[in-house]
Amino acid sequence: MVKLMITIFIFLVTRSARAQSSDDVSWAKRVETGSQVVTSMQFYFHDTLSGSNPSAIKVAQPQSSTNSLGGFGNLMMIDDPLTEGPDKNSKLIGHARGMYGQTAQNDLGLIMVLNYGFTDGIYKDSSFSLLSLNPAMQTVREMAIVGGTGLFRLARGYALAQTYWFDPSTGDAIVGYNVTIATYI
Ligand SMILES: *[C@@H]1O[C@H](CO)[C@@H](O)[C@H](O)[C@H]1NC(C)=O
């Protein structure tokens, strides 16, 4: 018992000494918090290329056609609504804004450079950044989340995306997202 208490005491002393010594420059400070928060989300992404008010528009394409499956070199700019359910009229919770482009020569592979910004509840004005290859032919696509703002500061995480509905004649799609994000208090 005494030995245990001494061990705990030594642990606390060395810990606080370490915490103090980390302040040895005036321009930087390290604080150990150790508290991680894991957020899981489920929402739907509506990518509309057709109609008079598309949310995804082509902004660049190769000078000569490339004969590749997915149109290697095509670049889209998007402002896609995110909703709570698969129905486009279900509650709007945010927007995915940014670009995706066909980056694979021999199969479908999209490079996704997107900001997912939220407008609902405590997540209003928080966002995360996704930067990843989207292997669009796979049933479930895993993509990396590399950062964020607001409640998603210091985010690390991943998204699992699965197409809910797709119209091959227009390219319009509704994609379900399951997102897991770790942040720190
Ligand atoms: C997303 O989560 C729902 C509910 O837990 C589950 O039914 C679905 O299979 C998940 N989809 C993916 C692509 O992980």
Explain what you see.
The protein has 185 residues and is mostly beta strands. The protein has a single domain, classed as AOC barrel-like (Beta Barrel), CATH 2.40.480. Helices cover 11% and strands 47% of the residues. It contains one helix and nine strands; from the N terminus they run αβββββββββ. It has an eight-stranded antiparallel β-barrel with strand order 1-3-4-5-6-7-8-9. β4 and β5 form a beta hairpin. The chain is globular, with a radius of gyration of 22 Å. About 6% of the residues have low confidence. The structure holds 2-acetamido-2-deoxy-beta-D-glucopyranose. The site of 2-acetamido-2-deoxy-beta-D-glucopyranose has 5 residues, from β8. 2-acetamido-2-deoxy-beta-D-glucopyranose binds next to β8.
Specify the number of helices: 1
Largest sheet strand order? 1-3-4-5-6-7-8-9
- End-to-end Cα distance, whole Å, is 34 Å
> What is the overall shape?
globular
Helicity, as a percent range: 10-25%
Task: Give start-end ranges of low-pLDDT stretches.
Answer: 8-14, 16-20
How much strand? Answer: over 45%
Total number of domains: 1
Please identify, by name, the CATH architecture.
Beta Barrel
Strands, count: 9
What is the CATH fold-level name?
A: AOC barrel-like
Family: Belongs to the plant dirigent protein family.
Organism: Mikania micrantha (bitter vine)
Subunit structure: Homodimer.
Pfam families: Dirigent
